[in-house]
Amino acid sequence: MEPVVGLDVSKGTSVAQAFTSRNEVAGKSKNISHTEEGFEEFGEWLGELRQETGKEPVVVLEATGHYHRGLVAYMERSGFCHMVINPLQSKRAKGSQLRKVKTDAADAWHNGLKGRLN
């Protein structure tokens, strides 16, 4: 299985959480600034993950109005594999939990797990 990065996108920043295999977290979550420098740091981070695992990571993120478009454009330009999921799918997957936790890191975690299920 390839590594998966769950990405919770918001207005000016996003939070990413990497997984090397099912429920196996690769380090801490990472904040990504929606600037060219922030996108480049994100690309370097994905490259490090690729080197660690020997496989191309897949980035999973929700469609968030227009906030996700800059990140998607960067990933397409840079050749990173990504999936944009419907927010309703993500909400259903999060709703299957017993505890209701709403944080950007938790959302990134769930997006990563959703990518593992597909």
Notes on the structure:
It is a single chain. With 118 residues, the chain is α/β, with parallel strands linked by helices. It has one domain: Nucleotidyltransferase, domain 5 (2-Layer Sandwich), CATH 3.30.420.10. 43% of the residues lie in helices and 26% in strands. It contains four helices and six strands. Strands 1, 2, 3, 4, 5 and 6 form a six-stranded mixed sheet that branches. The longest helix has 18 residues, at 36-53. The protein is globular.
| Secondary structure: number of strands | 6
Helix percent reads 40-55%
Main sheet makeup: 6 strands, mixed
Discrete helix count:
4
Under CATH, the topology can be stated as Nucleotidyltransferase, domain 5
Radius of gyration computed on alpha carbons? 13 Å
Using the alpha-carbon principal axes, give the shape: globular
Domain tally:
1
- Tell me what portion of residues adopts beta-strand conformation: 25-35%
Query: Which architecture does the CATH hierarchy give at level 2?
Result: 2-Layer Sandwich
Name the CATH homologous superfamily.
Ribonuclease H-like superfamily/Ribonuclease H
Q: pLDDT under 50 segments (min length 5)?
A: none
Structural class: alpha/beta
Which CATH class applies here? Alpha Beta
Through-space gap between termini: 11 Å
Mean pLDDT: 82
Please write the string of helix (H) and strand (E) elements: EEEEHEHEHH
